[in-house]
Design goal:
Layout (H helix, E strand, L loop, with lengths): L9 H4 L3 H22 L1 H9 L21 H6 L13 E7 L7 E6 H19 L6 E4 L7 H13 L2 E3 L6 H11 L3 E4 L1 H13 L11 E5 L5 H14 L6 E8 L4 E7 L6 E3 L4 E6 L13 E7 L10 E7 L1 E2 L11 E2 L4 E2 L4 E3 L2 E3 L1 H8 L5 E12 L1 E10 L1 H4 L3 H19 L4 E5 L14 E3 L5
Parallel strand pairs: 3-4, 3-5, 5-6, 6-7, 18-21, 19-20
Antiparallel strand pairs: 1-2, 7-8, 8-9, 9-14, 10-11, 11-12, 12-15, 13-14, 16-17, 18-19
Helix pairs in contact: 2-3, 5-6, 8-9, 10-12
The chain binds 5'-O-[hydroxy(phenylacetyl)phosphoryl]adenosine.
Length: 445
């Protein structure tokens, strides 16, 4: 386990704040200009608000600019917010939107090489990963940014990456032993599951070399950190394990927007690329350092899909004090929740509205449903769907078919398996106010 503070880009990571802020101001102006001249949506927004990039004199002026929300990406689906023509785009990723269509992001070569891979490399080194490490990357490869993001970061620092992707528990555990993996990159829930299976299988601990986990893509608590550190320390060769938080979102770049250092006192946001603010979810007004608010980012160096003041909906607070590791970049506290209703199930974003969108397209389904989220080591999601009286009288075979159709449609939209239970008319409790559609039975930590 690495107790040594290392940097990937020391000069930038430890840059005096005044200098960092000068850089941010210059880059924010460039971002605003790029958006104003290249993205119709922003040109319109800025014009409506009677602002132009020339109005930016200090970093405080950032607050004059409009907040960007997920719906802006949806309304401009798929490529309407891209600032570059397709011949300059080298990669496209997507994450869940609030309904049937995903949120799409595009990267230029600069975005992949100089922003994403670079900040991912910084993040891994910040977490204690280095050359000589064997990183078993259990983040999903695909449209989800986790797999490829972590992958290229590992290669950039010269660590050996095993592109395992998610799932495949038995094989993951075999490779831990056979390849001597020293670092695991995974969602904390999958990591907890793997630790549990290693323990159950009573594997010789000399064969488990894992010293660090770089865990993220979903909400996790300090309690969960304790559990993960204990669980891996109990089954590995050294009896020590560091569980480090990595944060990110595809709209901004994917993993590596921020990362904890080995002191584990908040995630450093790579501020030379991402200008961070927190705002009050109700008023949209900035909240003070230390005060909780929605985390907002401006992607000050990105070309493909540059975003001005994008609100993540993740709730946290900012801490500008210099960290024990010597880095000057602002830290955010662990994410404590979201100001919207997005859930993370097995690392995948799920909005209740996506489920409703699917259900309401299917004939025979009444407008009443209930989403139940449970944790049986891994998270599971079930939907209880009320049928119309006419459909409920169908034969067993027809109902079985309907259930399978709904499950298939939900899978197509959400990309995770959802168990469907069909229930009789008038079974789901009615509400007189805001319907409580989601019953989240997952326990803290
Ligand atoms: O989850 C990117 C990622 C991959 C981050 C691998 C870390 C590791 P999305 O699928 O777009 O991107 O989901 C982004 O996930 O707004 C948060 O709500 C949540 N999230 C991500 N990391 C953390 C974390 C990836 N460390 C959304 N703690 C974000 C809490 C997290 N929530």
């Amino acid at each position: 386990m690495s107790d040594q503070v290392r940097y990937w880009a020391k000069e930038i990571e430890t840059m005096p704040r005044a200098q960092l802020q000068d850089l941010q101001l210059r880059r924010f102006k460039e971002l605003a200009t790029r958006c104003y001249t290249k993205v119709r949506h922003y040109k319109q927004k800025f014009t409506d608000m009677k602002i132009t990039p020339d109005d930016i004199k200090t970093l405080d002026d950032v607050k004059k600019f409009p907040i960007t929300v997920k719906a802006d990406l949806r309304d401009n689906y798929p490529f309407g917010l891209f600032a570059e023509p397709m011949e300059n785009i080298v990669r496209i990723h997507a994450s869940s939107g609030t309904t049937g269509k995903p949120t799409v992001v595009g990267y230029t070569k600069h975005d992949v090489d100089d922003v994403w891979t670079e900040t991912m490399a910084r993040s891994l080194v910040c977490a204690g990963v280095w050359r000589g490490d064997v990183v078993q990357n259990a983040y999903g490869y695909g449209l989800f940014t986790g797999g490829l993001g972590a992958h290229f970061g590992c290669e950039r620092i010269g660590a050996a990456v095993i592109p395992m992707s998610g799932g495949n528990t038995e094989r993951q555990i075999m490779l831990f032993q056979d390849f001597g993996s020293t670092v695991l990159t995974a969602t904390p829930s999958f990591a907890a599951y793997l630790a549990e299976i290693i323990k159950q299988q009573k594997i010789d601990r000399k064969l488990i070399k894992l010293h660090t986990g770089v865990f993220g893509a979903e909400f996790w608590t300090e309690k969960m950190r304790e559990k993960l550190e204990t669980a891996f320390a109990e089954v590995n060769a050294t009896g020590k394990f560091n569980a480090i938080d990595i944060y990110g979102l595809s709209e901004i770049e994917g993993p590596g927007v921020s990362n904890e250092c080995i002191f584990k006192k908040g995630n450093h946001i790579w501020e030379d690329h991402f200008l961070a603010e927190t705002i009050d979810p109700k008023t949209g007004e900035p909240t003070a350092p230390g005060e909780p608010g929605e985390l907002v980012f401006s992607t000050i160096t990105k070309e493909g899909i540059p975003l001005v003041r994008y609100t993540t909906k993740d709730i946290t607070s900012l801490n500008y004090e210099k960290c024990d590791c010597g880095r000057t970049h602002v830290r955010h506290a662990k994410i404590t929740g979201r100001s919207d209703d997005m859930m993370k199930i097995k690392g995948i974003n799920v909005f209740p509205s996506q489920i409703e969108y699917v259900l309401m397209k299917i004939p025979g389904v009444a407008e009443h449903y209930e989403i139940i989220v449970e944790r049986d080591i891994l998270d599971k999601i079930k939907v209880r769907v009320e049928l119309t009286p006419k459909t409920f009288s169908d034969s067993m075979a027809e109902l079985e078919n309907l259930k399978r159709t709904i499950e298939k449609e939900l899978y197509t939209t959400l990309q995770i398996n959802v168990a469907v239970e069909l229930v009789a008319p008038n079974t789901i409790p009615r509400s007189i106010g805001k319907a409580k559609r989601v019953i989240d039975m997952r326990k803290e930590g």
